[in-house]
Write a structure and sequence with these properties.
The protein is mainly alpha-helical and about 375 residues long. It has helices spanning about 30-45, 50-65, 70-85, 95-110, 120-140, 170-180, 185-195, 200-205, 250-260, 280-295, 300-315, 320-325, 335-340, 345-350, 350-355; strands at about 5-10, 20-25, 210-215, 220, 225, 235, 245-250. The strands form three sheets. The chain has a three-stranded antiparallel sheet, with no helix packed on it. Strands 1-2 form a two-stranded antiparallel sheet. Strands 5-6 form a two-stranded antiparallel ribbon.
Amino acid sequence: MASLYRETYSYRDLDGGRKSIRLHGMNKQETDERFQQFLMDLQKAKPAMTLREFVDQVYRPSFMSGLAATTNANYESYLSLNILTFMGNMPIDQIRVDTIQRFYDWMATAGERGRKNNLNRKTIDRIGGFASRIFKVAMEMKIIQDIPFKNTLLRNNGAKEGHHKALPDEELDRIKRLIPALNHPRQRLYMGLLVYTGLRREEIMGLRWENIRLQEGYGEVVQVVVYPNKKRAVVKDNPKMEASERIFFIPRPLQQLLMPHCQEKGYMIHSRTKEKPASPSTMEWNYKAAFEKLGILGKYDNHDFRATFGTQLKEMGFTSAQVADLLGHADTRMVETVYARTRKQGILKHQKAVEIMNAAYACGS
């Protein structure tokens, strides 16, 4: 039986041009269904979006634009050095579990292709976790059917990760005694803040005298200074995370160290003028020169002092939640895995308490 109904429909082709098609059917419902099938077939013929296109067009503008400076810098590094380098030009709907396994193995052998080192397990896990979130968004948008990150199937062959290490108490005491003897004011300020507060380097570089309350014994973290590609200083009003908008304590030795340099306003560690943060070259020279004079260059890094601060707090009896608050973390995960790892020295501090606990059972008592 001949078709009794005809309808003309407008649509856009794969190049964005406006086109029309005339369809026949028994009634309007049938021609509408045929047009919907036509559009579905047209969409299937469209070349799949690459991972790079999805990141550039969707993920970066929608999910990375509001991130804090240091987090955004880390994610951009993950993208440029790893994720997009390996699979950026692959159609996102064709990336499978075996692709991710090759990606993991590629990162684990990065030193063979000119990188400074092979990536360790923890770094690979962090990059994989970030990439997995990208694919989760793509799945929720129905661009892909499934997330190719299957942890039970993937092997992480990265090198054993090294943890930031807490300094021995006697070494930390030695450094504290030597800091006031550093000749350059910027070095004294930097090392004092690094050793006594547990602040991140970017937080120290962002401190202004307006946010320091010496008499009350505390300061406030309200901004950070980061150095993208070590080319320029960038001031960000938002710290790493909301929990980082916090106070930090200034113990008496640090108060005494800061007092001679106290100003009404301006950056504590500044460039040529007090209203500009230190440049990348000044920042690098500042802490490396101080480390060298203190005899610790190559032995410890900036973050080791933060790990030491967290470890000592934990050994003093602070809970993981309290340590997280003082370090500016949103939860206790980093505290328990990195910043407050148990030291032999810390365990021995409890020896006397164990003796007291068992004193009643000593021989002859």
